[in-house]
Amino acid sequence: MPEVHNWQLGRGMDYPYEAKFPSEQFVFVFNTNRCIACQTCTMACKSTWTFSKGQEYMWWNNVETKPYGGYPQHWDIKLLEMLDKAHQEAGVRPIWDPSQSDGNNKPYGVYNGLTIFEATLNRDLRDEVALGYLPSDEEWSSPNIHEDTATGLKGSPGDTSWKDGVELPVHQGWFFYMQRLCNHCSYPACLAACPRKAIYKRPGDGIVLIDQARCRGYRKCVQQCPYKKPMFRTTTRVSEKCIACYPRIEGGDPLNDGLPMETRCMSACVGKIRMQGMVRLNEDGSWANDPQNPLYYLVKVAKVALPLYPQFGTQPNGYYIPPRWVPRGYLHQMFGPGVDEALKRYAAPSRELLAVLQLFRSTQTIISKYEIIPGEKVYETTIDGKTWEMYNDTAVGFAKNGREVARLNVEEPFHVRSNKYFNSI
Ligand code: SF4
Ligand code: SF4
Ligand code: SF4
After folding, report:
1. What is the CATH T-level fold of the domain 3-347, as seen in this structure?
2. What residues does each domain of the chain span?
3. Nearest ligand, CA of residue 244?
């Protein structure tokens, strides 16, 4: 296999095709700390793209409850177990070396384990390009099974009678909501797996699509996408997946004067946990320096948003601010070694980070650039023994054409309703 560079792993890795990168990449950041699992995002996608016959069990966007829930059921645990077995057979210890981290090039250090592409090389899987499995129909049938089910006390499954279990930094009994859609990966396993070459990554925006006319429904993409985001449609006998609402990304929505718009699932988010847009790429696939782009800032400068299971090796373009109350070992497995620093920065945010966090879901237009206007100090407290100050700064967001599309203060405005309207609607 050719070698490509995976910056999330801090090293080169095997991938079936030569590296090729779009000029801009579709990217999103989710703040798991704020999600209320209302599923508005899920229904926004469903009612737009997957409401037809044969799509009844298809949820391109879903929100599942971790650690027990999953769509399809146990998708990540199953693959982690397969990967674990591959490591044991190859005699490789899958460890990260954070001491080799180097700014933006290797932000999380170096991953010394096997990716899903490399894990097939030493095994009886030479015909497969990546480690994977095909979920059963039953596993697809319950999109958020085990909703709101917390872990029990250690050694007593189901026992939630703890006394001090819900204090930070880590809860004894815990669960959290995980929002999922296709990551429009830089090294997509679905694309690599397709024997018909029916899957392609668009050169302008990095969106990964399945050509419905070429697909013959072999389901190799379903089997080998580690995130299980392509889905088979029984009525048409071909696979389908999230299309990143590309007409909106292209500025084709008549509501928005031709400006790129956030996708349906992003712009519908009630909890304001989502921010989506585009990042510019250099020719070698690295992110072009663009610190005033909010996504670049969150991932590369503040480093509070981390990729989901980077060790799988597809270089996913969805990033998550991890949930603060969850045991660190679980989070390290899920988001890699950047978790501790990310949570430290999120728990005591800098002035800039706090201001940028206000921009989440402030407009349907994609924010390409932001500015911060300094405001007065409004609050002071102590976090982890250090003084932390809050300023009422103003975050201003600009669209691709430079037009101002969002303006929010850190301190939320407080409105007192006139007595004239007391108890009326
Ligand atoms: S998440 Fe899966 S379906 Fe989406 S691009 Fe990556 S490998 Fe392909
Ligand atoms: S980006 Fe669009 S197509 Fe993809 S999950 Fe969200 S709403 Fe559905
Ligand atoms: S709409 Fe937002 S808050 Fe509601 S479930 Fe989706 S991601 Fe979570």
Report:
1. Alpha-Beta Plaits (3.30.70)
2. 3-347, 351-409
3. 2
